[in-house]
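Hello,

Our lab assistant flagged a job as stuck in the queue for most of the afternoon. It eventually completed. Since we weren't sure the result was trustworthy after the delay, we are filing this so someone can double-check. Below is the sequence as submitted and the structure that was eventually returned. Let us know if re-running is recommended.
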Amino acid sequence: MAIPVSRLDLNLFRVMDAVYVHGGISAAARQLHLSQPAVSHALARLRRVWGDQLFVRQGNRMVPTELTRRVMGDVQAHLRGLQSLFTQAERFEPRTLEMTLKLGMRDVLEAISLPLLVAHLSEVAPRLRVASVRVPRDELTRALTMGEVDVVIDRQRRMDSGIRGLHLADEGLAVILREGHPLLDKGLDASAYFASRHVMVALRPDQPDPLQAVWAMAGRDGRDIAMRCQHYFAAARVTAQSELLLTLPRTYARELAQVLPLVVCELPLPAPAMGIWMYWHAEREGDPAHQWLRGEVLSAVRQALGSGLHQSAR
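-- returned structure --
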């Protein structure tokens, strides 16, 4: 017989188990710290739900019916399973964690932090899965609120009050040139930088230069963009085989120079460091598993960026 979900009350199954185990309403009431009328009322509700007497009185005992004997094993197993879930929540153990950690991050941070993060998680939480996804910046709050991502790593942004944030580190800019580039002998100063042609990384064809504010601070209108790419790795490969320059976060520039014939130079003009932040929804603030995952992500990003942790949360 199918029991409508709307009529289920988990407390009723605890009463059913107690009467079955202790063989009477009085003993079940003592075990559950309830009154006898409360147990009798719960048993009456159970009988209506199941459409069966469940227990019949024989002398001083309540004897289970055939239906109760048939289902009691499953009822007790499910009650133990629920108790186990609560125990796991109270005593969080990473090795037993079975879930997918959904990280919102850009390709630069993905490339430098995921190898460290996944290598560590494979040892301490072998059943955990990791998914890195791109979340449009104007949808960060919605994605975190709807649970589409667990954590977002991005530049500092103004967020809604329901979103928590932690400053992870600051990242500077660098310029990469191909090995043997003429500017390596002449020197890369501001004049040479703006006289050169550049590769710019942007997802949208109409996206303005993300470093325009930096050029404005230096009293420049902009730089000569010869090519746009969607991803830094593609842009770096173009740079390695051309005279073009690519400006990007310093840590990723060093990573790329290890696998491509590139040389890393400092950006030859002052530019403010980019604040890297981790964001999550306030409702997940106290969850033990989420707290642990945030700590693991924080550690991986901090190690990847080679920077000390700035303990400034809001």
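-- support follow-up --
The delay was a queue issue, not a problem with the job. The result is valid. The two ends are 53 Å apart (CA to CA). The longest strand covers residues 163-171.
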